[in-house]
Amino acid sequence: MKYFFLSLIALSILVVGVFGFRGDKFSQAPIQVFPDMDDQDKVKAQTPDSFFADGMGSRKPVMGTIPRNAQAGVMPVEFGAGRAGYYFDGKKDGTFGNGLPDDLKIGSEADMTGLLGRGEDMFNVHCAICHGKAGDGKGVVGYHLGKVGVTVPSLYAFPQDKFPDGYIYEVISNGKGLMGGYKHNLPVRDRWAIVSYLRALQASAK
Hints:
This protein is 38% helix and 2% strand. It has a domain at 98-205: Cytochrome Bc1 Complex, Chain D, domain 2, CATH 1.10.760.10. The longest helix has 18 residues, at 2-19. Strands 1-2 form a two-stranded antiparallel ribbon. The protein has 7 helices and 2 strands, in the order ααββααααα.
């Protein structure tokens, strides 16, 4: 038994000698038993890289590559930062307006159906978790917040005559109360798609 304790003490001294105590500082790099992806083969932007023949880390896109969501090779201003006009801020002559912006180019029933479909998809991804799929405020988050006395409002409480489409767009973009804004998550068109779908939910509930 005494050999066991002697071995344990020796092993402890060895471990402390190699790895040190928790919080100790060393001038040399630590021994990495499990690197956990600390060191990776990667190319940092705007830095040289000897892997390529020309020594440049930054590479040109592959011939024929088209940027995501690009039209005619030009990326649209998707998130509207710093842009003015009803399409970007929901306001007409300084006040919140009603109706869908002309920029959406809804010219047919098929266009509107596509917009509503996109609105439903984005609503279910970003909004239903709190407001519920039916928009009645009975989502998963709403259920748990209710246990501590916090309610998630039903979207039926925001009729178009009192809360214009532009106002709903503004709330989606910048948030209100406990709700955070989604202007960095949702492109402008998707926000308007959610507005249109929300109005469809309200109409279906009447």
